[in-house]
Amino acid sequence: MNPEALQTPIDYLKGVGPNRADLLRSELGIHTYQDLLNLFPNRYLDRTHYYKIGQLQRSSSEVQIVGKVVHLKMVEQQRGKRLVATFVDDTGQMELVWFRGHKWIRESIKLNTPYVIFGKANWFNGKFSMPHPEMELLSEHKASLRSAMQPIYPSTEKLNNKGINNRVVNKLMQQLFVETKARFYDTLSVDILKELNLISKAEALVNIHFPKSQELLAKAQWRLKFEELFYIQLQLIQKNITRKHKIKGFNFDQVGDLFNEFFKQHLPFQLTNAQKRVIKEIRNDLGSNAQMNRLLQGDVGSGKTIVALMTMLLAIDNDFQACLMAPTEILAQQHYNSILTLVNDLRVNVKLLTGSTKTAERKVIHEQLLNGELDILIGTHAVLEDKVQFFNLGLAIIDEQHRFGVAQRAKLWEKNEIPPHVLVMTATPIPRTLAMSLYGDLDISIIDELPPGRKPIKTVHRYDSNRLKVFRFIRDEIAKGRQVYIVYPLIQESEKMDYKDLMDGYESIERDFPKPEYQISIVHGKMKAADKDYEMERFVKGETQIMVATTVIEVGVNVPNASVMIIESAERFGLSQLHQLRGRVGRGAEQSYCILMTSHKLTNDSKTRLETMTRTNDGFEIAEVDLKLRGPGDIMGTQQSGVLNLKIADIVKDNDILKTARYYALKILKDDPSLSKEANKVIRYTYAQMAKHRNIWNYIS
Ligand code: ADP
Ligand code: MG
């Protein structure tokens, strides 16, 4: 059938009146035949198996039984009447119960005739009963071609209340197949169908709605999932290509004096291969005439700062300014310090702008930015203020991307005609699966190698009852000259309790680690910024050996001499947060440790989190587990991206299909960017149809 015909409004389908059409639209977003066709079942009931009454289990589940009704009676109750049938087979008897529709059922049921019944068998008052069973004469059941795998469609309470139950949806679907004669054009090219050995679109649609067998159902699911992911990938990749063609970027064609001088004379260490590769990828972007839009992922401590600096030097070599934004003042300050140290011998003007920058200094910064004297501006959100105007911003680097919104980012260059190159750095690895779907239109660089000589952090799980041993261990480490973090959870909802835990903990630590032998810093969100800085400073300088803190230290703090991270109530932290916290240690040459303290009460999820943390240091592996535990909905950025609107594929479970889909989308666009080859005609046509009917745009903001 002509694909346009599938755009017929749902009102036209036989069996759908104006009321049902309205409900289908408002409840399930079904406007057209096509939409109904793409309403895929959530699950299937297996009706290939027949139970005997004698086999029924007391757990209530859906079963199918062959037997006869031998008796029918009305039972009067306070709450109303019910119709009860006695149903028997050769192993026993049970009751079928109806609370409504009595007249019709009494008139239509044939006594002592074999039926197939289907429904939930409940154990009630010493016998099994099944309310409102589906019933079909055995003779008709045998003759019917209906699938043994019964689809269960997504529904809503309102639909059910208005009588549009699963059976009705099923009927409508059958009607749709009748009206369209189930002739559906294929939406994938012959090449793909052949290479992947896929069933046709028509066969897939038949089998997703009326599976003929488990095997065909599996094939139908694979094909439809692939198709869904393929067209999303196609669009993301094409968006990326378009950006490269259309969004002009500053061309940094000079690898000039600063970069070269730094590289040859001032590199404090040899770059890792991963760092070299990433710098190369960035340099390619910067010289391509198109705007760079790159995500740089690298675990904590993988050395992103030097990459950021070298990218900024490239900008300056080409007579542009660069800025580096961090989510917190502490982090901005640290970036500023490390970059100042690195460029110490170079003629580079670097300044720091945060909320606490003094007015006089601020004025100087504003001036130097405008007249071009300032090369690098490092700062917090303060950089985004309207008063901050650049002479020629050519590069914006954003650290810890998830804390800045897209809109905020855009603010940086809304006044520019040509946008600056953008490099987003994150230490929270986004699982590859998710990154592909979310950021398929960004380029991604990954530093997947730690600088040499790092000893992997040893992570253990200890119960609160072992606290004395843990304290002894801390004393030993401090005796060796090391420093220790002790972190308490602080969660908004239970802030008061958490705060009390923190203070109690602090007091008990003070008792166990008495002055003057031990000095303790404490930092938490309720302190004034100046006090926080003071305490932090003491720890950084090594004047205190123990830092008691809430998660404010999560991001960025760099104290290489700190080698022990104790996380209290670790079961209350999420995986990525645990991993971030652990990243605070292991920054020096010494062996570092992370100790996860918990009570004995642990949920299965907490156990998985703790087990994952003790097993691996790999941020990507951790991110994958996190995604599996929490689902994509809770991971940053997914809410807006619409990956949750997938109709059939599951971004976590269908990882392999996603990879295949991406591979094919890339392959095809590489070979035929405008999809103009004859072999890709079907794809171009389908893609255009999707765009026209806005199917695909639902996925992407
Ligand atoms: P992050 O990726 O977490 O921002 P940093 O850039 O802060 O990591 O680097 C962590 C530490 O590793 C810093 O002390 C830095 O000087 C050091 N470092 C970075 N790259 C290398 C390298 N190639 N060899 C040795 N040390 C390195
Ligand atoms: Mg960093």
From TrEMBL:
CDD domains: DEXHc_RecG, RecG_wedge_OBF. Coiled coil: none annotated. It catalyses: Couples ATP hydrolysis with the unwinding of duplex DNA by translocating in the 3'-5' direction; ATP + H2O = ADP + phosphate + H(+). Residues 466-633 form the Helicase C-terminal domain. The keyword Hydrolase applies. Its EC number is 5.6.2.4. One of its GO terms (molecular function) is hydrolase activity. Signal peptide: none annotated. Keywords: ATP-binding, DNA damage, DNA recombination, DNA repair, DNA-binding, Helicase, Hydrolase, Isomerase, Nucleotide-binding. Residues 285-447 form the Helicase ATP-binding domain. Gene3D superfamilies: Nucleic acid-binding proteins (2.40.50.140), P-loop containing nucleotide triphosphate hydrolases (3.40.50.300). Plays a critical role in recombination and DNA repair. Helps process Holliday junction intermediates to mature products by catalyzing branch migration. Has replication fork regression activity, unwinds stalled or blocked replication forks to make a HJ that can be resolved. Has a DNA unwinding activity characteristic of a DNA helicase with 3'-5' polarity. Belongs to the helicase family. RecG subfamily. This is ATP-dependent DNA helicase RecG. The gene is recG.
